[in-house]
Design brief:
- The protein is of the alpha+beta class.
- 47% of the residues lie in helices and 15% in strands.
- The strands form four sheets. Strands 1, 2, 3, 4, 5, 6, 7, 8, 9, 10 and 11 form an eleven-stranded antiparallel β-sheet that branches. The protein has a seven-stranded antiparallel β-sheet with strand order 14-13-19-20-21-18-17.
- A hairpin with a 5-residue loop joins β2 and β3.
- It is globular and about 75 Å long.
- The chain binds arginine (ARG).
- Arginine binds next to α9, α11 and β20.
Length: 725
């Protein structure tokens, strides 16, 4: 089967000109040779060999790329563990370190020496150490009936096998090693990935938000762009260069590989590639699934976030303290709120549903030609499952967006249960332990970034909204308390909940801990609220995961079929959906025409920052220092030949969330920018890549270095980089 694919692929490559479609694809580096993508890259302009990009037996460019924090990419830009990533990726850390006194969000942060670099607990950087193909092993288990095909996709099976493989590997118990076994192509392939995790990552530099987040929510997901979306961190390790928790004795990591930075600049049509960790795409959905995503996921998400963001926006404008506390939460929520709006619009504008219908027609033809029974019925199978799923997805999204991602206040009700049980059993030791835990949970909830009054207002907006959208019989139990005891007056209930329940304040908690009785719990609004909300969430998660299981085999079949069809009809290999694993996408620097009569250039300059300047709009304020540099044309060696300062550029690279911070690399393997966004017109891209419209938005490395050197005065960082003109 595999061989069949290979020969046909090789043949087709000769017959067709795949370079024309080169832009789409989040390619697996480990399949570069098998899929011939390296030849396609060379055709597009790459001047390197496959081993320069990914070499399982030696050092390659991939060793200078890693996972930054929970969901971004970063790249190594010096021999001393210096990381470049986006400002919005470092945002959480910048916000953590900020207070009204040290407002690094507003003022930026520039460490003047190693000693000034700020330890950031919880922040990690992960390199990919090794990737093993374990498809055959799993297929054998399926053939031997040790597992079913569906079970082979379950978390339980994967984590057990992951543990077993790890234990038997030469990497077992080596410092910092983290194994991960994942299905690709919906289970048509499996890879075991070993990562090396460095837990001491320090904050080194960040521009003021007026530069790193210039354009704010208005410009987010939009081109033309003028955001210098970068921040700089550093990996520290023990004296042997091994991962170690923070210690004063740790030293900057001596990295095996770092990017050389090119100041040569870019032209329309230049080769560009991006290596990084795209989080999630759904490129193989059927038409019915796309419709379901629009109506039952995106729309509920937009509705709930809209209501929450309106509250946060008002409260943040009123107080500096709240502005800093909620900066990161706001940005996170608003990012995919706007994305969902843009995606629904782009699905319609770009006629994605029609494209899906056309694909299904073509697939039916292919299935008939092959006379493959599974292929013939798989789309209608998925359609039927979608019908079953749709209502549940709607309820699930409303519930998660409201009670998980929306309202923060909650009571750890089962912990309180345990305290009461231990007390009733006269197990003082156990009770005391739980009491300590309850106090710790209290400080977790009422942390530096939480404001009880802001959250109360969020609850007042979301709890009634949820009741409007969800059928009465599906509401969590606490809604009947509102109806019966509070005569349907939401605000009264919420005030009582936020003022007088056990977890409302320390005094109430201590009062309960002194005399923890079942009766007190039964009376407590917070207990009832939290328990019924969690009961509902658990019930829905269970339903959803049962439904997900039913989709597993049809998806696996459909994705395999689409892959075979693409190869047969177009001579093109396929890539698996993004799953936050290392990928490579290649293409070109390229302008586009978003609408009739409009042409968007492939790059922007600092002139555009000045054009957008609006001192009365916090999103478009230009700091005085940057204006001064602009007026004096004090751009150093970073200016273009015509004297202007480059800002951002766009390329045809296929990226999505998770790629943020990824290195944008030229034909010689040098760093020319950092990828940070996608464009508005192609926000349907996670579902359907549009060759004409989809662009990757990047900050030009020259803009980054100019800000570090001229605005931040951090020449010590420039000095440790390898820069070529
Ligand atoms: N849209 C960008 C991404 O998902 C994030 C940009 C963050 N900036 C902002 N203004 N919220 O990668």
């Amino acid at each position: 089967m595999k061989k069949f694919k290979l020969t046909i692929a090789a043949l087709c490559l000769l017959l067709f000109s795949p370079a024309a479609k080169a832009d789409e694809g989040m390619w697996l580096l480990q399949l570069m040779k098998e899929q011939n993508s390296i030849d396609m890259m060379k055709k597009a302009g790459l001047k390197l060999e496959a081993d320069d990009l990914y070499n399982p037996n030696g050092v390659s460019l991939k060793d200078a790329v890693g996972i930054f924090g929970g969901g971004c990419t970063g790249e190594i830009i010096s021999g001393q563990g210096l990381i470049l990533t986006n400002h919005h990726c470092g945002y959480d850390a910048i916000q953590q370190h900020s207070s009204v006194e040290h407002d690094y969000l507003t003022d930026g942060f520039w460490a003047g020496s190693f000693a000034e670099e700020l330890p950031t607990p919880g922040l990690k950087f992960k390199f990919v150490t090794r990737i093993d193909d374990v498809t055959e092993l799993i297929n054998k288990k399926i053939a031997a009936k040790e597992v079913t095909e569906t079970e082979a996709l379950s978390g339980k099976f994967l984590s057990e096998l992951e543990e077993e493989l790890y234990k038997n590997s030469d990497l077992y118990n080596k410092p910092g090693i983290e194994p991960e076994l994942l299905p690709f192509y919906a289970g048509n392939r499996y890879y075991m990935i070993y990562k090396k995790v460095y837990p001491d990552v320090r904050m080194v530099a960040a521009p003021p938000s007026s530069i790193g987040k210039f354009g704010g929510e208005t410009d987010n997901w939009m081109w033309p762009r003028h955001t210098c979306d970068f921040s700089v961190f550093r990996i520290y390790a023990d004296a042997n260069g091994e991962p170690a928790e923070y210690s004063e004795n740790n030293v900057p990591l001596k990295t095996d590989k770092h990017f050389t930075i090119s100041l040569r600049g870019i032209e329309e049509g230049d080769y560009a590639m991006v290596m990084g960790f795209p989080g999630s795409t759904q490129r193989y959905l059927t038409r019915s699934e796309v419709q379901m995503t629009m109506d039952n996921e995106n729309t509920p998400r937009i509705t709930v976030r809209d209501a929450r963001l309106n509250v946060l926006r008002d409260e943040m404008a009123k107080s500096d303290k709240v502005r800093i506390q909620y900066a990161s939460k706001f940005a996170q929520s608003s990012n995919y709120w706007k994305n969902a709006i843009g995606m629904n619009k782009a699905i319609i504008d770009n006629k994605v549903l029609d494209a899906k219908t056309a694909q299904e027609k073509l697939f039916a033809k292919f299935a008939n030609e092959k006379n493959d029974q599974a292929y013939k019925t798989v789309v209608s199978e998925i359609d039927a499952l979608t019908k079953e799923m749709a209502d549940n997805l709607y309820k699930y999204t409303y519930t998660i967006e409201t009670f998980y991602a929306g309202i923060e206040f909650g009571t750890p009700y089962s912990l309180l249960d345990s305290i009461v049980a231990a007390t009733e059993n006269k197990n003082t030791e156990k009770a005391d332990k739980f009491k300590e835990l309850a106090r710790a949970t209290y400080s977790d909830i009422f942390n530096k970034d939480y404001d009880h009054e802001v959250d109360r207002k969020v609850a007042k907006a979301l709890i009634p909204l949820y009741a409007e959208k969800i059928a009465k019989e599906d509401l969590p139990e606490f809604y009947s308390v509102i109806e019966k005891k509070f005569k349907g007056e939401y605000d009264k209930y919420i005030d009582e909940l936020y003022d007088n329940s056990i977890y409302s304040n320390e005094k109430n908690l201590e009062k309960f801990l002194k005399k923890p009785t079942r009766k007190a719990l039964d009376k407590d609004l917070g207990y009832g609220y939290a328990k019924s909300k969690w009961d509902k969430m658990r019930e829905m998660m269970l339903t959803m995961s049962e439904l997900d299981k039913k989709f597993a085999i049809p998806h696996k079949t459909y994705i395999r079929g689409i892959g075979e069809m693409r190869l047969a009809y177009e001579g093109l290999p396929s890539y698996p959906d993004a799953n936050f694993t290392l990928r490579l996408t290649y293409g070109n620097v390229k302008s586009y025409d978003p609408k009739d009569g409009i042409h968007y250039k492939y790059m922007t300059t600092l002139d555009g920052v000045m054009e957008k300047e609006d001192p009365n709009n916090p999103e478009f304020v230009v700091p005085a220092k940057l204006k001064e540099l602009y007026e004096n044309k004090d751009f150093g060696r970073y200016a273009m030949k015509d004297g202007r300062m480059p800002a951002c550029f766009i390329s045809t690279n296929d990226i999505t969330g998770g790629n943020s911070g990824s290195p944008v690399i030229n034909a010689e393997g040098q760093l020319i920018g950092s990828a940070f966004d996608g464009n508005w017109e192609s926000l349907s891209g996670d579902i359907n890549f549009d060759n004409k419209l989809q662009r990757c938005i990047c900050v030009d490395i020259r803009y980054v270095l100019f800000i570090i050197e001229k605005l931040g005065g951090c020449t010590r960082l420039i000095d440790e980089m390898t820069i070529v003109e």
